[in-house]
Amino acid sequence: MEAQTLTYLFVGLSFALYIGIAVASRAKSTNEFYVAGKGVNPVANGMATAADWMSASSFLSMAGLIAFLGRDGSVYLMGWTGGYVLLALLLAPYLRKYGKYTVPDFIGERYYSNVARVVSVICLIFISFIYIAGQMRGVGIVFSRFLEVEIEMGVIIGMGIVFIYAVLGGMKGITYTQVAQYCVMIFAYLVPAIFLSIILTDNPFPQLGFGDKLLGSDIYLIDKLDKTLVDLGFAPYTEYSKSMIDVFCITAALMFGTCGLPHVIVRFFTVPDMQAARRSAGYALVFIAILYTTAPAVASFARLNFVDSVQNTFYEDAPSWFKNWENIGLISWTDKNQDGKMQYSPGSPFEGNKPNYSGDRGEFGQRLLTNMSDDSNTNEVYLDRDIIVLANPEIANLPVWVIALVAAGGLAAALSTTAGLLLVISSAISHDLLKQTFTPRISEKQELTFARIAAALTILLAGFLGIYPPAFVAQVVAFAFGLAASTLFPVLFMGIFSKKTTKEAAITGMIAGLVFTFSYIVFFKFISPELNSSEFWLLGISPEGIGVVGMAINFALMLIITRASNAPPQSVVSLVESIRRP
To answer: What CATH class does 3-302+398-580 carry?
Structure first.
């Protein structure tokens, strides 16, 4: 059976499973729509949390970043996994004990202010939509390559699937759908990793094969990769090129951002009690670690195989996988020295970052010719980093069923997180803005209807962001973490561990953190990308790590303004004491 036929089969079966689960567990009340009735088993919730967490950024893009950044990419591993420990210890149990539906619910009541609630909703929407942009891009990439449709159409199909099971099932349907998606994605990630580890090192464990000797050689795989890249003009794979302060700030932004991600926090509202919240966090960390300990191996295998497959190969003899990805504009080549061979080295082969592709192969070829004016380097090959995990099985000539499996896994990763994000946005709009703030007299049935309408509208905007994404998937997600670290994490932390923090302090801190972090990212990534280098960054901190500075500003303003404002009411002090009581 051909790869495309198998892909249709695997993807179709997985979609049927997700929709079937959503229909069977359709939410019938706001309690089920928002928090799945608060009766999810900790093991199931751990799997669902892992699926919610291991988005397209983890499945598709993280290994791609590590493959091309080398040791610099380790900040994503350290930040994202370390953040889960903080979340389990600092926030999850206490927020579960509070017992409400949403993060803005807690902020609104703890800071005795509807203004604080509305500001937190605005922060939540900023974070969630930036996060969604990365997920929908991942959906489009998988559909465009393996189902041979345009990226735009792939995003639209993904929107339709998410609409069915997110709007119908709510949190109850999403939870059990995510359990199935976790099983699909982890199997799809491990199978090709094991294949590649055996082929390259004869070690069936990728985590160990990553540091083993190449099959039939006395050379370690990492040493071989280092030497190969240095010979091509790249920095050594195993050395940092980022400054220590930037490494620290990116890692910290990802860690503290984890504690402020609303779609992850709300997962701990779905379990029966505080103890179950702690247990589900522990299970989630184990389930996440399975993929995260494998990612460095996948990245190394992919970079080595890519170089061996491409370098000094005549374009007319290029492997089929190269032509397949070239046809959708995610890999490309231009013959700068007119020798007919593909030369891979540092630098962009085109004017700008990549060819401006849309339409058929002919138009793609014409666009390449107009972008060949950059002669500042010898690199002739462009590769979109987000495809490296998806292309890896093809590059290594693995069985076609493995290729189909990886496609199904990539879609599971992107769709699971998209559904969780859509739910927190719709919940914030229907519950926090409408029910709790502007129209408190609406019935539960009306509230549920508004939640579904908000989810539908959110899906439309998410699709637009997927079609016109601002950067690579993992980079987009890193920006969302920075915003979460600088806005929601400080007010949640102080709301739990400080009885004195006032509403004025919380509102000012969130606004300052959001404005500073968002402005910094927009300036360097969109307004003046030519200045996006350590020479111009504040204290040498990149946009991916600037959330830590925004977080520090937030904390500082809260401490200062708390001293200058009236103390919170006694009812709020009692609320904080009750949350912290075991």
So the answer is: mainly alpha
